[in-house]
Amino acid sequence: xxxxxxxxxxxxxxxxxxxxxxxxxxxxxxxxxxxxxxxxxxxxxxxxxxxxxxxxxxxxxxxxxxxxxxxxxxxxxxxxxxxxxxxxxxxxxxxxxxxxxxxxxxxx
Length: 108
What we know:
Mean pLDDT: 79
Strand content: under 5%
Radius of gyration: 20 Å
Structural class: mainly alpha
Number of strands: 0
Shape: elongated
Oligomer: single chain
Distance between the termini: 51 Å
Low-confidence stretches: none
């Protein structure tokens, strides 16, 4: 469960991109990802509302459209964050390489 709670938060941008690309090729998410999503769902209170019989009425007008719009916004934000993190990781690697080459040149 601790691995699941760290799943989205930890790792460099490249590691996050690798996880994203891996998940795109799977029919079912990796177990750690599934546990993370279940923990998030339970923590949101939705599970307790269902158990208590307080189901949402999906027959109301626009419910499906609103949920789809929310999903698009959620995943768009995740993609933006992932690619931002990848860019930062590449920039960090470039700086480290530059510093290493500069230090190598200073040794001559």
